[in-house]
Amino acid sequence: MIRLHLLGSVRLLDGDGRDIRAVLQQPKRLALLAFLAAARPRGPQRRDTLTGMFWGESDEASARKSLSQAIYFLRQKIHPDLFEGRFAEEIALRPGEVWCDVVEFEALLDAGRTADALALYTGELMPGFHISEAPEWEKWLDTERDRLRNRAFEAAWALAEQEEQAGHSGSAAHWARWAAALSPFDEQAHRRVLELLVRTGDRAGALRTHEEFARRLATEYEVEPSAETAALVEAIRRDAGGETDAMVEKAAQGLARRELPGDAGRHIAALAGLGEAAAGAHPAPPDHTAVATLHGQSQADATASRSGLRAVFRPTGGRQTKRMSLRRGSAAILLALVL
Q1: Is the pLDDT of residue 66 over 60?
Q2: Which of 173, 174, 195, 286 has the fewest CB atoms within 10 Å, measured from its CB?
Q3: Is the Cβ–Cβ distance between 32 and 74 less than 8 Å?
Q4: What's the CATH code of the domain at 165?
Q5: Rounded to the nearest 5 degrees, what angle is found at the Cα of 311, between the Cα atoms of 307 and 312?
Q6: Distance of alpha carbon 167 from its chain centroid, rounded?
Q7: What is the pLDDT of residues 231-270, one digit of tens each?
């Protein structure tokens, strides 16, 4: 069976998986084959439709002759029985002679096998393909590109929502981003991705995704995201800030007065971004133990504070000797360090 790939790239392979170069080097005849394989409704196409689409600039006699020559060429280079012979004014590929990814993609979608269908959608229909003096073909190609892209987009979003409802946040985010990638400058699609990421608890991922989107807009069009998108992102940032405060409080309460390794000062300073100088300035003295407490609070009643944490090195007798302030938000780093 011949395999005709039209999504993401154009390839025509024989039964042994080899390129049929003779046809690939004839753009108009290749386009004719693609149309006969992928056009809707599937099946026979009228000769006058084909002549108007591919040879519309020629008179009728010349156009019909060009069509006949193209059909003969495809039979010679692909297979003598490529076309059905029972139609006078219609042309059709013989069933079972050509497998086409576009046809398979839509059949899988219609059968509800969405993930399998999207595995076939590796890019738009016949990207970069062009033939001269065939405006009707170009119109058909543009229309089909949009239609197939929209089908893939909606299918991917349906999968994202399905995975979200099932509690599979990672898979939901994957399909949401997959869908948005089909329209990389579509702000509505972008906002849908951000909202889904927030719903699945990945606010940091939402903010990173927006930064990438904003860079694309600036690079390609020298514009900024719309006010609606900016407002959504600002709301995400505010919510993320509130979550950070809660995280600091929870981590700080867990770390207060907790014994840490003796060299924790160096690690904490480095992880908190204070640099080697700060780390070296606060080594744990011999026979001292590092403990975590809160800035601005008594050690006995340490509670969460937005000012941040500090590492306190305390000798075995309990006398406090050295301190190191940590920036707000470092509680998560400390928590990761000691748990």
Answers
A1: yes
A2: 286
A3: yes
A4: 1.25.40.10
A5: 115
A6: 19
A7: 999 999 998 765 544 544 555 555 544 555 555 544 444 4
> Are both 102 and 165 inside the same structural domain?
no
> What's the rounded mean pLDDT across residues 306-313?
40
Q: Tell me what the mean pLDDT of segment 292-304 comes to.
A: 36
Q: Give the C-alpha distances (Å, rounded to integers) separating 206 from 172, 209, 240, 313, 315.
A: 13, 5, 10, 39, 45
- Among 89, 109, 138, the domain boundary falls at 138
pLDDT reading at 305 higher than 90 = no
Residue 257 phi/psi, 5-degree rounding, is 60, 15
pTM of the model: 0.70
Residue with the two structure tokens 């399998």: 116
**Three-class secondary structure of residue 228 per DSSP:** helix
Are both 227 and 266 inside the same structural domain?
Answer: no
Of 178, 213, 243, which closes a domain? 243
Which of these ranges, 78-92, 215-229, 230-244, 300-314, has the smallest mean pLDDT?
300-314
Same domain flag for 52 and 132: yes
**Amino acid identity, position 117:** A
Radius of gyration of the chain (CA): 32
